[in-house]
Amino acid sequence: MAKAKGKRNRRKEKLEFVQDYLPIRDLKNGIIETTDNRYIKILEIEPINFTLRSDEEQFNIISSFASWLKISPMRLQFKSITRRADSDKHISMICEELEHEENPQCKELGEDYIGLIKDVGNREALTRRFFLIFQYEAVGRNESDDYAKIYGMLQTAEQTARAYFMQCGNSIVQSKDPDEATAEILYMFYNRRSCTDEPFSSRVDRIVVDTMAAKKKIIGMDPVPPIRMANFLAPRGIDLSHYNYVVMDGLYYSFLYIKAGGYPSRVRAGWMSSLINAGEGVDIDVHLRRENRSRTIDSITLDEKIFEQIFTCIKIRGALYDTRKTAPVRVYTYTPNISKILSEILACHFCDEMKKIYLQGKIFELIAVYCDEVICKSPTNDFGIRISVEDYNALLKAREFIGENFAHPLTIPIVAKAIAINEQKLKDGFKRCFGVTVNDYVVEKRLEAAIRLLKTGKHTVQEVTWMVGYSHTGYFIELFRKHYGISPGEMLKNNR
Length: 496
Prior knowledge:
Elements: H1 2-14, E1 24-28, E2 31-34, E3 39-46, H2 55-71, E4 75-84, H3 88-99, H4 104-123, E5 126-135, H5 147-168, E6 171-172, H6 178-190, H7 194-197, H8 200-214, H9 229-233, E7 238-239, E8 246-248, E9 251-253, H10 273-276, E10 284-289, H11 293-296, H12 304-316, E11 326-328, H13 336-346, H14 352-376, E12 386-388, H15 389-405, H16 412-419, H17 423-434, H18 438-456, H19 461-467, H20 473-484, H21 488-494
């Protein structure tokens, strides 16, 4: 009993170290591994002045950003940090130049300029840094954490973000050493005050020296013992004993949480600028989670009599189905008119009752066009092949899953795990229902996305290759030419 109690006390004492409160286990290839088995990537975004852009430029930026959100990682965090500008480096550079200045008038002007920088800088000069943070999301259920796959998916997400943000006018900082850059960002997060007095490189040197001394090692002769990543990043102190604020590195932090419904559904362009420009010490964190498309479309309640008329219309044309046992399997590719109506439904800008009226009208139009172009004009109305409702719904989910994740590596086992269906059922049922194999459908969705991206004329062929999920440009070019009879370079040239 005494030994067990001693062990419990030792575990409790271990939590008294500041670094034990940091949920960081390791940092490798610019990827943060947390103590709760998450893998996180941090990218620094160079900002643009959105408000100074023309209406057309703002619209294009918003459209490109919205397109990226549709294929972005499931969970995103945008972080804005505002700090007082460090003008010491700039002042020291000017002083060095003035030492070699021989003209007394220029020297006097330089000294006046230094005085102006000190006066204005101490009162008003601020710097802002913007970060994009996302994490690895397992495609399937109960999937083992294979680091190569995790690294590949995060790299793909990073390359896609770079391409889209470039289209928006932003660039993502490219560092020579991703580990060092990420560690320095984390160090700044946790040491907002100390990082100005002790740069990250100095902190690393100090931690190494202290560790060597504690282990009684000789610097330059003995190898450096293993050091936890958290030791390099930990602040000098954390106080979590207060209910309404936190003290970290000598600074007081308070948090204001605004729920998703805290803002109206439609806002003006640049609506967050007032928050970002609030002043020193005000950080803005926006957390986003991408929902399945089926959850984002408003449900429409149809009048019972109208529904009966529609059902009768469909029944007359031979499209019979039994919801109790089986479902029709023949699924047709969207026609251009159907695709246009669906796009208009998703882009609805009306609100409240007007939105309901608009969407109901579009639903009626969609059904009428479907009956006319798909059922009436199809070569046959024979729905002879039947499948259970459960399997059919699973195959529909598989098709939706591929449509939302085609830019990621997808195989039959990955898709089968994601929707919880037998691999053989997925392989056979997908071909019977939709007329194409799973792999062919992935290729189809990728090439459709490539067509849309190339028609904008804003991406290189290599960028499009990454954005649609291919790693080898040569293979993508060959595949594109085989399907469309034209190379992606030629299509890009025609749209510029």
